[in-house]
Design a protein that fits this description.
Layout lengths: L2 H13 L4 H26 L4 H25 L7 H21 L15 H4 L3 H19 L5 H10 L5 H27 L4 H24 L2 H21 L1
Amino acid sequence: MASKPSALMTPLLILLGFPYNVAIGTDLLYAAITKSSAMVGHARQKTVEWYAVIWLAAGSIPASMITILLLQQTYQSAADYQGILTRSLGVMLVLTSIVLLYKQPKTLINDDQSIPDYETDRPMSKPILFVCGIFLGIFVTLSSVGAGALCAALLMWIYPQLPALRVLGTDISHAVPLTLVAGIGHLLLLGNVDLSLLACLLVGSLPAIHFSTRLATKLPADILQKCIASMLLLMGLKFSLF
């Protein structure tokens, strides 16, 4: 699942010595770029619930923009709001780790295409999606974490019968515009993006993806998922409490 390694990127950059704000801002643009091809692929396969993407984005995009503007107008420098970023990152890492620990990997192979009309059957889903979008817009902008696994968990909660392939396609198709808007905001308004670091990440991700894909095929999915979740949980607690 694409959200697993992306949740690790920001804390790993921080542990390597990059400032919190730079790690978060750079990772947002990195996520938008690397997930875009997957979004196109899901769109071509028609495995995206576009009404869910629209309602999530209706909440998340304005929330992200407002969050960026509030940070710009309220604080003089990144050091002044580092505490907000740190706590937000910690909370989102803990939530993401909980999702990964309790979500069964076997759901990812479900690709049943014969599904009901969720937009008609669940009329209350629209305001729920909108509110969830606001939450994601704020905290993804502050932490760069949550647009993947956490959003997927929310979709599975709202639509428990939605096939996993459509959950993944919808999740990625919402993550791309959200991380793009948040990343551009960090770049243009807050100056939190290191373009050289971004270029290095993009170049380095090509062999890394190849290596991680081969490694993942040799490890049991449940063990791999629990290892990643445990790492996220420990880092989340570190950022939340210290």
